[in-house]
Amino acid sequence: MPRPAPAPAVERPAATAAPPAPLSFEERLALVNTAMTMRLDQAAVAYEVNTAHIDTEPVDLADVITVPLDTAPPPLPTLYPTPVAALLQRAHHRLVTGGWCKDVLVDEDGARCMLGAIQAEARGNRSLEHSATAVLMDVIRRAFGDVDSVPGFNDAWANGRAPLRMVDQAAGLADTRGL
User: Fold this and answer.
1) pLDDT tier at 29 (50, 70, 90 boundaries)?
2) In the chain, at which end, N or C, are there fewer CB atoms within 10 A of the end residue's CB?
3) Are the CB atoms for 111 and 118 separated by under 8 Å?
């Protein structure tokens, strides 16, 4: 059977795409938002990759977050029942109310360093003073590693937040130990 002759090709006009409708303001904002989010995500990944080798120390939030201080000195709380814990609690209260200083036991304004506050509250009882200082050193070494002395630790700070916190924690530890 003979093949039928092919039909003549009908030329169709080329389909022309209709010009895109202009984007609305909201659509343009959505596109820009998507593009910026992608760029920010890429920048965040690049930052993480570029800084992964940098060794950082964790920040103690108690040293960073501060709240307005009440101007009136706080009342002395109920003392711990054990003598060393009570001494450390009184020393902490003295530092809070009388002020903290560094480089001297007592400055010209009456502020005291950690050891100066312990000595003042021990009232000449060397055994009690020594026990309180030993507990304080335990607390400091737990938190900060190898520290040579209480005065050395005290003098390393520009403000008294960390030293006061250590004296307060030492009072709690002494009470836990029954000292």
Assistant:
1) very high
2) N
3) no
* Residue 117 and residue 152 in contact, taking contact as beta carbons nearer than 8 Å: no
Instruction: In whole angstroms, give the CA distance from residue 73 to residue 50.
Output: 48
Q: What is the tens place of the pLDDT at every residue in 113-122? A: 999 999 998 8
Question: pTM to 2 decimals?
Answer: 0.58
Q: Give me the half-sphere count of Cα atoms (radius 13 Å) on the Cβ side of residue 38.
A: 5
Q: Which residue has the higher pLDDT, 126 or 53?
A: 126
Distances (CA, A) of 158 to 21, 29, 48, 93, 96: 65, 49, 32, 20, 16
What span, in angstroms and rounded, lies between the C-alpha atoms of 179 and 174? 5
Domain boundary assignment for the chain: 24-56, 61-66+78-177
